Write a sequence for this structure.
């Protein structure tokens, strides 16, 4: 579970970069700001996540589903920002799927009885969680790359 928590910390780090996104021209600036705001909403819940609770995983997944819906409805005229939005939607959906799966696995692990079947279930759950950690790490890298690209495009001057 410690590795999962570290992976979540990586995700949270990517989420903390979002408020630093700054833009340049007025139309581009307002569109950048709208996109960044929509993305940031999805990262807010991640920062407060208790990674050991199945209910929190499911709640976070639902919040990310809401973020995905907001991103899909975001009106953007700039073609590059529309591409960034599509990438952000894919990232948000990816995180949502990961947290739905993790929540289900934790819920299952919490219901296991000390039997031979229970041990098999725990082993299966551990395999699912390892897969979720790998997916989380990959999706976090994608999210961080996207943040950097949006920063670059929108003219952010970060140290």
């Amino acid at each position: 579970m410690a590795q999962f928590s570290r992976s979540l910390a990586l995700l949270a780090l990517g989420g903390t970069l979002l408020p630093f996104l700054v833009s340049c021209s007025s139309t581009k600036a307002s569109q950048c700001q709208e996109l960044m705001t929509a993305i940031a909403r999805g990262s807010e819940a991640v920062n407060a996540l208790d990674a050991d609770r199945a209910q929190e995983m499911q709640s976070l997944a639902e919040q990310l589903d809401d973020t995905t819906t907001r991103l899909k409805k975001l009106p953007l005229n700039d073609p590059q920002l529309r591409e960034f939005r599509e990438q952000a939607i894919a990232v948000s959906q990816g995180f949502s799927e990961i947290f739905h799966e993790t929540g289900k696995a934790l819920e299952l692990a919490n219901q296991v009885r000390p039997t031979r079947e229970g041990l098999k279930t725990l082993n299966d759950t551990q395999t699912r969680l390892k897969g979720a950690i790998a997916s989380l790490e990959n999706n976090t890298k994608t999210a961080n790359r996207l943040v950097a690209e949006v920063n670059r495009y929108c003219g952010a001057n970060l140290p």
